[in-house]
Amino acid sequence: MIALAGSVDRIAAALHANGLVLRGGFNFTPGDARPTGSSGAPAAALLLVGQAGAAPWPHFLRWREKQLPSANPLDSWSCEVIGAVAETFGAKAVSPSDKPYLPFQQWAMRAEGLRPSPLGILMHPQYGLWHAYRGALLFDDELPVQAAESGPHLCDTCVEKPCLKSCPVDAHSAQGFAYQSCLAHVRGANGEPCRSGGCLDRNACPYGTAYRYPPEVQAFHMASFAAVDG
User: Fold this and answer.
1) N or C end of the chain: smaller count of CB under 10 Å?
2) In angstroms, how far is CA 80 from the centroid of its own chain?
3) Could you list the residue range(s) of the whole structural domain that residue 140 is in?
4) pTM of the entire structure?
């Protein structure tokens, strides 16, 4: 058993070496549906791992140069890096791509006090829409952490809602995300601006622009989206 006193700061430092950050955490309560921890018993605590802006990108690229091509290289890199941290600190690493899917969106809202934007991405008061969750660490013992309280939601004060007006096929609306329309457009003859520069609706958001992913990072993610079955 790894001593957990002071471990949160050391975990953060280990993740930072690869451009990743701790994105909050909490201790499960008796009424929670708890995933299995490293011992096989229900986990007692969770720390979310993610990114702010494109900080992991250079680390991922260096790793990718040494790997054989794969369908989901960023997921593979994330699992490797977070898994190594989990092993060091006696935790269990889980990923948003694991099946059956775990409630990462709900965990994130609880851990950081965030709410969804009209695009479905959680709106962060500092990072805007330019952040992501790459995994989570599950612990068998409680940690000295607590869930954040919800603060002001930037989307509530955004009157113009440019994120709902920039997509040429109106993929995002009050009715939700028109997945098939978006996918067809991105793959089609008129989808080059999205393929090369990322989602136009996401880029129209006025918040967190200092953390906006560079075009090559957005193009990578859009290529992954365009390659999915559907």
Assistant:
1) N
2) 16
3) 7-151
4) 0.93
